[in-house]
Every structure is written in structure tokens, then in C-alpha cells.
């Protein structure tokens, strides 16, 4: 049983729609410089969750997994950017350094799938979300915040889940 505190929250999503809705609430709160780390095996629901984030953020672009191109960039009408990185195919942190995360964070928010592959480049302050496949429709979502900004984002997610819509 996980210890409940202000820096973590566990939740069972019962459907892809619910996973997208929670993502949308998070996406609506994202700002330039925010970093969201997504962990989970293939089929755990990361892309579904990112679809919700992008929708809530106001993306004009459709979401797809960036596995083969490393970084997808989504735009919205105010010229803001949302970057969606998949670090799975990166061979080293050096390769990730060449992607220039700092310039991405100056322009927008950054979602990183497989962040453990670029250990050392991920900022300490971030929101970690681990998705685990439970069954056909259900996913366990584990949220962990590091830093004041991410505690605030975690509160938004907690309110979306517990406080109702």
C-alpha cells in the first residue's frame, strides 16, 4: 500500500476516455518550462494520456507516438509549443543533449516518454507519471511530484479525480 502524501497520488483509470480526461485537465494547466515524465510499458496508455494532455492544452495537431522520430511538436493558436519526446530509441544521454531540451523548455512544455533512458538530463523538478496495464480497459496511474510547481499540478489532477468534474 503506497504511503499517501502531498507529493504522490495513485489512481485506477477505468477506460481510455477517463485516461484522456485526466490528461486534458493536466494539459489545461501546463505552462512553458513544465516537464512531465511518462513511464510505462508498450500498451500502458501513454499515448492515450498524451492525447488528453494535448487536447486540454489546446493543440491544433493530432497526437501520435513519436517513437521513430524522437520528438513530436504540437502547436496551438497562440504559437505556444508542446513537445512530446520518446527517449526509447536514443542510444545515449549525449544523443539526447543534441536535441537541446533547454530551448524546448524556453518555448513550451515537454512530455518525455522513457525518461530513464536520458537519466541526468531530466530536471529534478518534474511530474512523474507511471502507467501500468491492469486489464483491457483499466490502467493504474501513479503520479509523483518533485518541486512546488509540480505539487500544484498534482493538486489539479487530484481535484480532477476526487473532486469530480
Query: Which architecture does the CATH hierarchy give at level 2?
Result: 3-Layer(aba) Sandwich
Secondary-structure element string? EHEHEEHHEEEH
Strand content: 25-35%
Please give the oligomerization state of what you see: single chain
Cα-atom radius of gyration: 15 Å
Structural class: alpha/beta
The neighbouring-strand order within the major sheet is 1-7-6-2-5-4-3
Please name the fourth-level CATH homologous superfamily. P-loop containing nucleotide triphosphate hydrolases
* Separate helix tally: 5
Number of strands: 7
- Spatial shape: globular
**Termini gap:** 27 Å
CATH class: Alpha Beta
| Unreliable stretches | none
Largest sheet: 7 strands, mixed
Mean pLDDT: 89
| Helicity level | 25-40%
Domains (count):
1
CATH topology: Rossmann fold
